[in-house]
Amino acid sequence: MENNTEKIQDSKDLSILLILWRNITAIIIATIIGLGVGVGVALLKGTTSYTVTKRVMFVAKYSDAGNTAGNDMVLAKLYLPNAVDKIESPLFIHDANEIYKTYNIYNTSQGATPISASAVYSSFGDKSLIFSISYTDVSAEIAANKLKAVIVSAQNNLKKPEVTVAKDATIREVENRVTIKKNTNHAKFILLFTFLGFVVGVVSVLVKRTLDNTVKDKFELEDITGVPFLAAIEDLQEVENKKNKKKKHKGKDKK
Q1: Of the segments 14-18, 88-92, 169-173, which one has the largest average pLDDT value?
Q2: Is the pLDDT assigned to residue 221 strictly greater than 70?
Q3: Of 10, 93, 121, 179, which is most buried, counting CB atoms within 10 Å of its CB?
């Protein structure tokens, strides 16, 4: 008996995948519970934000009046990366906040927040002077007004270029419309807690298996002993219980 117990304890023949497969129902239940918790947390703690984007074009001119428009375009392309970086600089953002304060919706007593450089995002390509500027906030209207202030600040401050050969630089809006994108972090909570539920299910199954010394079925017995399974002697109490159940069913059928 002691030898059999040691074999059960020391058996490594059963693969982890097989153990997990035999307990797949418990793992699925734990994953579903995690999913439910994730949905609840997402509804209670999830946030929604809006990203407003507008396309603009960067323009720069040489100080020498004899230069052609082609040269102006070359200058603009060279100066564009520097100009985009400046849009998010403290000076430009400070001026953008001063402009934003003149809008009617800006009211600090009602919880309005100032423009943040971290909420400004600009993206541009190497072959075009047209690029996009975005601003993200809790409201599409607020984000649109803050983006407008950022653009006006850039138009005012870029007129003082650091490039000595340039006499003028600015950005121009190439279209009136803005693109609004709704962002939520609900999926993050749902995926996180669903994954945690799955992990808890897997860990629970493995821990339970480690602490359990009993043999579950004939396949596990064959894995442990290495001997083919031929027959099993049922527990006498279980046999008696089955007989009693059959007698009860027969009595009901007669009635």
Answers
A1: 88-92
A2: no
A3: 93
Provide φ and ψ at 250, rounded to 5°. -65, -40
Q: In CATH, which of 2.30.30.30, 1.20.1540.10, 3.30.70.1130, 3.30.70.20 is domain 48-184? A: 3.30.70.1130
Locate the domains of the chain by residue range: 48-184
- Token pair belonging to 252: 């009901």
Q: Integer distance in angstroms from the first to the last C-alpha of the chain? A: 48
pTM of the model: 0.62
pLDDT band at 174 (very low <50, low <70, confident <90, very high): confident
Q: What is the mean pLDDT of the chain?
A: 78
Task: Tell the residue number behind the tokens 């709704």, with chain if given.
Answer: 182
Distance of CA 94 to the CA centre of its chain: 31
Torsion sign across C-alpha atoms 65, 68, 74, 80: positive
By percentage, how much of the chain surpasses pLDDT 70? Answer: 67
Beta strand segments in 89-159, E: 120-123, 130-137
- Beta strands (DSSP E) in 31-176 are 48-62, 120-123, 130-137, 166-173
- Residue 126 has which token pair? 């190497």
- For residues 19 and 123, give the distance between their C-alpha atoms in angstroms, rounded to a whole number: 51
Helix and strand numbers (H, E) in the chain are 9, 5
The mean-pLDDT minimum among 5-9, 111-115, 133-137 falls in 5-9
